[in-house]
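Q: Hand in one record:
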Amino acid sequence: MEKRRILPPEETEAQKKHIAWMRANNDCYLAENGCRRGAFVLTFGCQQNEADSEKLAGLCEEMGYAIVDEPADAELIVVNTCAIREHAEQKALSIVGQYKHLKTKNPALIIAVCGCMMAQEHRRNDIKFRYPYVDFILGPSSLHRFPQLLCEKLEKGRRLYCPEEAEYLVAEGLPIRRESNYRAWVSIMYGCNNFCSYCIVPYVRGRERSREMGEIVKEVRDLVAHGYRDITLLGQNVNSYAKDSDYGYDFADLLAELDTIEGDYVLRFMTSHPKDASRKLIDVMAESKHIAHQFHLPMQSGSDAILKAMNRRYDTEKYLGIVDYMRERMPDVTLTSDIIVGFPGETEVDFEGTLAMLRRVRFDMLYSFIYSPRKGTPAAEMEQVPQTVKNARFDRLLALQNEIGKEKNQALVGRTLRVLCDGVSKNNDALYSGRTEGNKIAFFEGAPNDTGCFVDFVAERADAYALYGKKI
């Protein structure tokens, strides 16, 4: 067991010196007109990647850059990549390819590629040999070295390839430029020890390492003091928080401590692994003041044989036991899940087992995916299900979940719900949108001063994915 996996203070201080060097050398970040040079940060992937990008943007600002919305306005472009699916990797590579013309137009432009893709040797080689205009790369465990690499690039002018860390550690004290002033991500741990046979995460993000409770409490307390209303704790498997350490507490203890922070806010977390979802955790949620009665509990498959092949380390009986206890303690809980369709070896009987679990559990929402092989994982070497079969099964799964989701949402029609408003809807500028405590999308006629505030909302109509109604 690792006792402490925190980056030594001297390493943090070294990066602060690089930041200070950048700020002291105006010619490194001032444009010809004397304005701050622009930095553009593009993110692919999960909420953890979004949280990482907020730190990258924070580092850019600390070094004197102004964050811009368009790559064409930038002197520094940072692409934070995802490796969870092949499609995400190809999209990232395609966009990096489009930046070649920007580099041709402005040779002083610096392009950095980081994130999970860069923890894979074959992708690092792709960038090295196919994208010679990329200036430096670094993996997700090396984000704290970003100032160092940028300084070295500016001083020496050569391309840099930051090697993976010899030891994966938690870097505290990095500046954060949050995308929202009322919703926030808070990473409580990094990495994963589970090695599900389909998943690349343990290979690109390393082993689990947890932040100390005091650091997390301090961050959340500061967010609440600054008016944040919706705070989500992040980890590849938050339920295993602190198991890698000798801290003497667990995830349920962390939640209980955070719940004592006074204020008007909702606390969430993701993602959970069923093998570590304890009754203690559910009890803390049920008895809390601020923790949302919402639980994202990835099931992945309704077949015990497939779950075993996935190396998930639970079966359908255990999963149902968690769900039943959760609904006993929190009858109003919103339950969501992940499902992988067409995992190698999945038979029609296996898939029917998944449909049966959907009918039994009745999830409020599903995040469903057609299995995609990931190079370097055990499942990629297994016998694959034909694509046509996977597509047909996916359509059947979606049809069933749409039916269940609509019925679940229909039961909320006529009820008054508390909604955190996100402002004008991106899909219909005549309406405002927000999220309920159960993280369901709600649409209504709002006002500009509703954004970032809780409003009371009466649901009048429902579909499978959203509620429609009016603000009281």
